[in-house]
Amino acid sequence: MKKNKYVFGVIAAAMAFLFAQNAYAARMDMVDVSNHNGNMTTSEYLDMRNHYGVKAVNTKISEGSYYADPYAATNIANAQAAGLYINGYHFARYKTKSQAVAEGNYAAQVAKQAGLPVGAVLTADVEAAEQTYVNKATNNANNKAFIKTVEAYGYRGDVYTMGSWLGYRMDIANGKGWIANYPSSAAGLNYYSVRHSWQWSSTYHFRNSYGSFDVSQLYDNYYTGGQNPASNSEGNTANKPTKISYYSWNPRRVKATSGVSTYSDVNCKKKVAHWSKGTEFDVKRVVHVKGKVYRLQLTNGKYLSGWVSHFKNMYYVKSNLKQVKTLRTINLYKDQQRSKKLRSYGENTYFNVKSIVKTKSSLWEIKTTSGFYMTGNKDFVVKTK
Hints:
The chain has about 375 residues and is an alpha+beta fold. It folds into three domains: about 10-230, Glycosidases (TIM Barrel, Alpha-Beta Barrel); about 255-315, SH3 type barrels, CATH 2.30.30; about 325-385. It has five helices and 23 strands. The protein has helices at about 10-20, 40-50, 70-80, 95-115, 135-150, and strands at about 30-35, 55-65, 65-70, 85-90, 120-125, 155-160, 180, 195-205, 215-220, 255, 260-265, 270-275, 280-290, 295-300, 305, 310-315, 325, 330-335, 340-345, 350-360, 365-370, 375, 380-385. The strands form five sheets. The protein has an eight-stranded mixed barrel. Strands 15-14-13-10-16 form a five-stranded antiparallel beta sheet, with no helix packed on it. Strand 1, helix 2 and strand 2 form a beta-alpha-beta unit. Helix 2 crosses helix 3 (about 70-80) and helix 4 packs parallel to helix 5 (about 135-150). It starts with 11 loop residues before the first helix and ends with a strand.
């Protein structure tokens, strides 16, 4: 598993390679990701699952006893939301047994904080310069100590290394291990079939994701066991497409409930940028693509997928709203156009609601039982009844 992965723009030559590379491919049962892949969204994981047969994701958790991958929590949540098995790996720097134990404790604690579920695999990625300074017996003992440590936290351990190190710098018993070896063509090959997994490429490209990825072929269910991804993905399984619902009406303003991407085209194929959970977007209009598929076109001309599960509508629109409480200072107006201010009210002020009304600019406002108007933005008011 290469430590550095470079994110770059897609150009025509790269796209040609993307479609040609499948001729040289083994199965893509598992993909590993890290901070070098940036903010991976649920839609990207869904595309990997539905179009490439990916079943599991292995996300970087930590390195040594000093680095926690800042993207681990997002990768875990979004992979689970896509109905994939999720596992983690730790880039090992240990040279002694005590260091291996310390790194095992650190990796497991970071994994817990990031949300890696108990029962997932937490692998030691052993390929650093530190392991070249000690003999095979020491590496074996250190790997065993790391695995024993993470297993005490409820995780299942394993070791990843390069094929050239297997039997030379360390031993891994048959039936265990995740081994990397990159042939020029992996089609039809089954390297290391007595192991859990063979990583056969570090330069694979997925159509909806930037950059290159490590991909692996699995030989058993070790990396797809100990979890039930269906319980974390609205009834999905790794072989069952997600039932997706879209905004068919203009919500005017939405907040991302997970990492999302904006696109330059209405089919959401040409990614422009990644955005983190909590980012808010102003919506210009809803564009109907086909059937029940809609996109949200933003005021800057870019597009969002329009999935209801990925975006929180920032305005109250349903007529069953009876009472709200202010979250910050708001203004109350005499008219629906909000041009005639009555007065301001501070946070924790309660208002009884008569109805939800839509303005000429397509925003939703709250009409109080006293006949005045106020914002229906959920950043400013919250439903209490």
